[in-house]
Amino acid sequence: MKEKEMIPIDIKDKKGVKKNSNLKELGESLRYFRKDLKKYKQDELAKEMGLTRVYINEIERGKWMPSYNFFRRFSMVFPDAIINIEIKDGAISAIIGN
Predict the structure, then answer these.
(1) What's the alpha-carbon Rg for the chain, to the nearest Å?
(2) How far is CA 8 from CA 12, 25, 51, 53, in A?
(3) Which of 7, 41, 63, 76 is deepest in the core (most CB within 10 A)?
(4) How far is 64 from 58, CA to CA, in rounded Å?
(5) Is residue 57 in some structural domain?
């Protein structure tokens, strides 16, 4: 993972259709923080964040769109991981680094 990399995450278009090819890349970056930096299992991270293991798993696999609240909780567990989150025109962009 590149340091301080901007990963755009398009939430949905005006018709509500999800459109993104970066979810998998985002999931891999988040998995890196969980496994390599904290040595957490998914269920441990889920408990720490107040979420379910299934939710963590689906985000890491690039299947589900993480919410702003997810990023907020993730940044509490990994304070140096998420440097900036921007929401503009219905899209979320996150700068992730270590």
Answers:
(1) 13
(2) 12, 10, 23, 24
(3) 7
(4) 5
(5) yes
Determine the angle formed by the axes of helices 42-49 and 68-77, rounding to 10 degrees. Answer: 100
CB-based contacts of 42: which residues, under 8 Å, 6+ apart?
34, 53, 56, 57, 60
Q: Is residue 28 domain-resident? A: yes
Q: Which two tokens stand for residue 52?
A: 């379910």
Note whether residue 15 is domain-resident: no
When comparing pLDDT for 42 and 88, which is higher? Answer: 42
Separation CA 23–CA 5 (nearest Å): 14
Domain range for 67 is: 5-10+21-96
pTM for the predicted model, two decimal places: 0.69
- In a 3-state reduction of DSSP, which class is residue 24? helix
pLDDT in tens, 67-94: 878 888 888 888 877 656 666 666 666 6
Dihedral Cα 27, 12, 52, 54, nearest 10 deg: -60
